[in-house]
Design goal:
By secondary structure, the protein is α/β, with parallel strands linked by helices. The protein has three domains: 84 residues, Winged helix-like DNA-binding domain superfamily/Winged helix DNA-binding domain (Arc Repressor Mutant, subunit A), CATH 1.10.10.10; 98 residues, D-Maltodextrin-Binding Protein, domain 2; 102 residues, D-Maltodextrin-Binding Protein, domain 2 (3-Layer(aba) Sandwich), CATH 3.40.190.290. It is built from ten helices and eleven strands. The strands form three sheets. Strands 3, 4, 5, 6, 9, 10 and 11 form a seven-stranded mixed β-sheet that branches. Strand 1 and strand 2 form a beta hairpin. Helix 1 crosses helix 2, helix 2 crosses helix 3 and helix 5 packs antiparallel against helix 10. The two termini are 56 Å apart.
Length: 298
């Protein structure tokens, strides 16, 4: 007789409850059916799993040694069955979320915890990369959802989008930079006399967060950590997302440059983007809805 999963489950439950009758109730079977299942398993294995000489069955040494393996087999089968059921109702086997690296990352931890609970059998690929790479991934079909500034390129015609949150930026530089020594509020013309350091790639006149070029001297750095270090060294000025500079402003390693009333810091809309020609499954739909509430603290 071939070993069956039902027999293994009866063995595991009997070891757990210490009673064939309690096992029968738990499995919604008759006690003779449980006794037969365990007896058949013993025949298949060629070992005695329980000592039945007392009032209640007691695991033998062989039974104790095999119990952990039996539990693992039963558990793996349950996971297998649950995963198959998820796939049957259209739950995606995997999903890739590409997030522009300058987008606040901390709220994503809450997203990951919820994702684990909601979709335990779906593989999640979370990529925090440059804006150019995010756009490449979504355009190539290598990402299911992109989190980026609103309409950074002319790609909206083939994408759906949902608004997520506003990303405020602050004009900053090093306290040692000449601009930091000016007492009056700045006008755009004064900024043009000094190097602008921009988040982006060489062929962009507008940087990754939508800031236009305001100086004839400009450096473009596509990594926010390197860009922040360059600004702190006094190599130029930059508009940077508020969450990236708040600690440095408090510590005095960066200063906020004051602007005239008619000048203003930039605020950009961040959105979730997905291809129009692709039908979203339940995981992607849930992800977009949750992301829309994520940065609002809901």
């Amino acid at each position: 007789m071939a070993m069956t999963i039902d027999n293994l489950e009866a063995f595991v439950k009997a070891a757990e409850y210490g009673s064939f009758s309690a096992t029968a109730r738990a499995l919604k079977k008759t006690q003779p059916a449980v006794s037969t299942a365990i007896a058949n398993l013993e025949i298949d294995l060629g070992v005695e799993l329980f000592d039945r000489s007392a009032h209640k069955p007691v695991l033998t040494q062989q039974g104790s040694e095999l119990l952990t393996d039996a539990r693992n087999i039963v558990s793996q089968l349950q996971v297998f069955q649950s995963k198959a059921q998820s796939l049957e109702v259209g739950v995606e086997a995997s999903i890739t979320l590409a997030v522009a690296e300058f987008v606040p990352q901390a709220p994503l931890i809450g997203f990951l915890k919820e994702f684990e609970h909601q979709f335990p059998f779906t593989t999640l690929n979370l990529l925090s990369v440059s804006l150019r790479e995010v756009i490449r991934l979504i355009a190539a079909g290598e990402a299911d959802i992109a989190v980026i500034p609103e309409d950074p390129t002319d790609i909206r015609s083939v994408y759906h989008a949902t608004y997520l949150f506003d990303l405020p930026t602050i004009l900053v530089t090093s306290p040692e930079h000449p601009l930091a020594e000016l007492e009056d509020k700045l006008e755009a013309g004064q900024l043009s006399s000094y190097r602008q350091i921009s988040v982006g790639d060489p062929d962009q006149s507008v940087d990754a967060i939508g800031v236009v070029q305001q100086s004839s001297s400009i450096w473009r750095i596509n990594n926010t950590e390197t860009l922040l270090a360059a600004v702190k060294e006094g190599l130029g000025w930059a508009y940077l997302p508020q969450h990236l500079v708040v600690d440095d402003l408090e510590q005095g390693t960066l200063v906020k440059l004051p602007l005239q009333a008619f000048e203003k810091d930039y605020t950009f809309k961040i959105e979730a983007l997905w291809r129009e020609d692709e039908k979203r499954g339940p995981v992607a739909r849930w992800a977009c809805q949750r992301l829309a509430r994520l940065w609002c603290g809901n």
